[in-house]
């Protein structure tokens, strides 16, 4: 009998488990479309030139590493706030928006979840059906009951928007609604601008609490374009939360760079909210890391580097779109009868391919092509060398 005898083995993380299986696979043609990571056309994880430029500056003039303030690098927080709301926007100039540095987008979500739990302990959380696989567990771990709102319609290959509205309309006042600001993970289907207007209207009418998860700003149509959704919530006069991740947009996955922004009613209210966010941070990990946030802040606050970043991000975005088209064309050329053109109407890094669990398992076991059992494939891991093999493999299982 030991102290930990009663400890049960937790289930493996589905995506990380897939990675382990991929790493152990000896198939020389294997392709990992499981994990949500952008790879370049050579299958390499990019190290952006703008990031390297700042890191060179940092090693040329090394600085001591004292503790950061609880809310992180000040220049970072203000740059992220500008990115989220627009640098000259009213929420920024009025001082009623607050942004705190977070440990990745996940950290931003968790700070927000802890803050909301204290504010409204009995609120329920609604996430999309399906959603990023960590949303449910993250909000449950913060103490919330988590339910879902209708989102994906497999038969239609798109969003069940009527169902989504119906779910939101049925939610009790104060319900926290986690919305994917752009590039929905896992489906790749976003709602239209006109549909966003309707969501904003329901959120307002029902007095729901919007929590926008923006993990892919810039991967859809561009920084500003993808941020337009935030402007709709601002224009409606709502208060809300936004989590930001730079894991993908800066290819800084392991540096854990993210943030939480909260739009309040007034500057005075923002001060009170910030004081509470700091308590959530302080009691979890005291204060965040210097490196990644300094890199991102320097890029965002230096016009030439910022332009370079937007161009590098644009290259990633354009390459993903080109891969979507190649996938559609390649599947047709490989003999797939059904119309797969829906893949180009999806956006961001992922595609819900419509393949069944059995087909995904066959792809993995017989061809070494790894996606999740739900049929999700990371289009951002396709390249000019593996695309033909992936198309031929899919053609053999459908
Ligand atoms: N939200 C969504 C929708 C995501 O897809 C991800 C990352 N895959 C995150 C949050 C977490 O981002 P990070 O890795 O920066 O913690």
TrEMBL record:
EC number: 2.6.1.-
Cofactor annotation: pyridoxal 5'-phosphate
UniProt entry tagged with the keyword Transferase: yes
Residues of the Aminotransferase class I/classII large domain: 29-394
Pfam families: Aminotran_1_2
Keyword Protein biosynthesis: no
Swiss-Prot/TrEMBL keywords: Aminotransferase, Pyridoxal phosphate, Transferase
GO MF term set: transaminase activity
InterPro entries: Aminotransferase_I/II_large, Asp_trans, NHTrfase_class1_PyrdxlP-BS, PyrdxlP-dep_Trfase, PyrdxlP-dep_Trfase_major, PyrdxlP-dep_Trfase_small
Subunit structure: Homodimer.
Family, as annotated: Belongs to the class-I pyridoxal-phosphate-dependent aminotransferase family.
Protein name: Aminotransferase
Organism field: Rhodoferax ferrireducens
